[in-house]
Amino acid sequence: MEKILTKNIDKPNSQDIEVYLADGGYKALEKVLTLKPEEVIDEVKKSRLVGRGGAAFPVGLKWSFTSKEDGEPKFIVCNADEGEPGTFKDRVILRNDPHLLLEAIIIGGYAIGTSHGYIYVRGEYYPEIEVLEKAIKQAKEKGYLGNNILRSGFSFNIQLYKGAGSYVCGEETALLESMEGNRGSPDCRPPFPAQSGFLGKPTAVNNVETLANIPAIIINGGNWYSKIGSPGSPGPKLFCLSGQVNKPGVYELPTGIPLRELIENYGGGVRGEFKAVLPGGVSSSLLTDLDVKLDYKSIAKAGSMLGSGAVIVINSDTSMIDVAKNTIDFFAHESCGKCSVCREGTRRAREIITRFANGGGRAEELDLLLELGEVMYDTACCGLGQVAMSATTSAIKLFRDEFEQKVRE
Amino acid sequence: MFTLTINGEKVTVPEGTSIMNAAKQLRIDIPHLCYLEGLEPEYHCRICGVEIEGEPRLAPSCVRAVSEGMKVHTNTARVRRARKMIVELLLVNHSADCPTCERNQTCELLKLAFELGVKKVRFEGEKPSYELDETSPAIIRDPNKCILCGRCVRVCHDVQTVSVIGFINRGLDIKVSTFMEKGLGNVECTNCGQCIQVCPVGAIKEKSAVDEVWAALANPKKHVVVQEAPAIRAALGEELGLPPGTLVAGKMHTALRRLGFDAVFDTNFSADLTIMEEANELVKRITEGSVLPQITSCCPGWIKFMEHFYPDLIPNVSTCKSPQQMFGSLAKTYYAQKAGIYPAKIVSVSVMPCTAKKFEAQRPEMTDSGFRDVDYVLTTRELARMIKEAGIDFAGLPDESASQLMGLYSGAGTIFGATGGVMEAALRTAYKLVTGKELERIDIEPVRGLDGIKTATVNVDSLEVKVAVAHGLGNARKILDEVRAGKSPYHFIEIMACPGGCVGGGGQPISFDLALRGIRGQVLYNEDRVLPYRRSHDNPSIKKVYQDYLKEPLGEKSHHLLHTKYTNRGRV
Q1: CA–CA min distance A36, chain B (Å)
Q2: Which of A303, A312, B74, B273 could be bridged to A243 by S-S, CB 3.0 to 4.6 A?
Q3: Residue of B51, B88, B278, B494 with catalytic role
Q4: Residue B492 maps to a domain
Q5: Domain containing B178: what range?
């Protein structure tokens, strides 16, 4: 497949605007400025692009909602707070092709009708922040950002916000709270950010990878894009392959390729014997079927989620109690503490799993954890709490015997 | 209007109504812990989750607005399972010393655990072991009991606009604390105690003086006198088996004598005295053309708020001490002299609806009698506990009056406990001072009631006196910002820190229900109507204290004993 998202990353000086311009860079923006905002949104709708941050919400719809809301000004925010363990795909774009992202944000801003764009970037991404700062400066100098862009009458600026090290701030409502200077705690939805987001105004929040698709959609058309990969959620996807594989890394492949193909053809095969996979990072449930297709619907049908596309491979040397302990430790550490069920649930789940790891679990606690997982999914406010138990409960369901061996006598 | 179905029954409610409130119309009470009427919903507790057909998860009913055709289920196995488990999770992390917790009769978590049929806490694990915040002379915070519902944070920030408590840390380490964990005693806390009124558990309480008061009562060398604020008689009954809205002045005086107090007086007397001084001060300011508007000074929560946030308005604030402190300085001077008791022998106790009074009593300047003017301050709740501890059948007690010397009071004194009451009482006397005639329409309705800010114009001879009343510090800010900007049209402003006035004080029986506070206020207005004297200047004991001791309002002795000064406390 021809690369769309990562076509520039291996070029020398790929961050430089001249390199970007030499291969058709900012042509999509030039085209957009001759279209009406509705036409831009229609093209994105036709592409059937869904968000790549984890929730897989249709981008055209999100922009359409935001543009139709009454509040002014509106905002577009690029979520570059990539923090899901096993996810390192946005970083590739941020570090190597910043203008692809900037162009996409400007197009998004034009489409929803705003002059205010923000990039909320993970605080630990120091080199990427430098790259972005330089790119914004270059884009301003060339007239792609600022007042009256390319003499179109459209003005747009982009401001960087740096995160302060909290995983949950990747959740869009917590991210917006953080931008407002508040505690990074998620808000209840509805209202959605499209209705009431940054400073209470209509706000489109889009992930880096999601936006990186936009210029190609504008240039080649939504119909062209919709034919790539799985019809239900088409397009290229950046898969972050990690864990016990021979060649971990970021691979751009069409949605819907079988897991086996990703691991064997691209990842150089499993190190050791395949046991299970977390197809969407530590927020997802374990799968044991290598023939599952990597698209949102197929993975959901199999009982997990594609999320941000962090495919973590686990081999047969790995204890599933360790997998559960590792993931629940992470969520207990990263819970914002606002919802009782997530705060106290992750705390107690961690204690129970730790007891199992030390050979002191109680058999009935396994069922208690399964119930806790369901209650957390049912009642937690945000995605973090809803899925914090996914890896743990799927480990218990699929590998219960491993846990039962650790039950205290 | 939207029509939806809850548990199969149709209900029609205005757009924007929450599912929880829509359910109330069908007499369905959806359990909750963090939601509280009067505060913005913050959906921390997750207990109020309900099933909505077509949605994958439960929705928090406190905040989710209804929509047309919505089908809601509040009592499915899935809903009940979630509620129970969340209560279990809260209980396992809660320092559950219920038998000795002072909130065990009013604990919402305990009640919920029982009502939801939580039979066993299936989780086990570490309990929190935080240090208590005991830095404040008025309020103690126990983070080990805190269930992190955030009500206290919201009332402090949203209602009182004081914002001294907030969440710190993250996840498992999250807790409610003050700036840099300095403690309530070292930040701008006004000690209003509204955080206590909203706390569902025993995580915030008053710093108790019960043990000290029992010790004084048991000490034969001490002569223990007691005063009770106006608002106590309107609410004490609630703690002792009587219905809300019961006036218990007589039973209260009887109970205090039975507890062993040597002299039972009444703060309503010194409320009348405050009016004599404050009304004279107002007339003086108006006639001499000095700083206006004059702002009341009876509320120690408001005073500390002013000293932190509006110190530039110190010249506007009346120099009158509060009724508690006026009583305190007279108890160890005037009363000591009259009774022939050496003042060092006197232990001066007050019963207040208020936690800020505990702070006020220990302010360094409150020693004008030569001694600590007020030694111990009890809240309404603390007095109720003492009455219970002594085995007194409060509801069956006969009525007695307070001792006349510093216990006879007018209706003007008693309405101090309701928002607008000080204003009304002051106007009754100021009118007389200016015109020499009595105000005919003695009930000044525009300053009564529960509106956050009330204004009125009263014709005093040729002068139109403009007045404003604010209760709740968030409302006070609106009025004060006008004064600060030089745009205030008023001559006289009453400010009470607590919504509803003193009847809603931080020391009252636990409730944040403004309507209940209104009922308590009405008790005082009803008492006012039937008292033999309704104006402070008509009170014979007030006439006597001036004749025998103080000489005249704003005179030298009054200045020394009844007036005070304020401190610019700055910001933390």
Answers
A1: 33
A2: A312
A3: B278
A4: yes
A5: 139-209
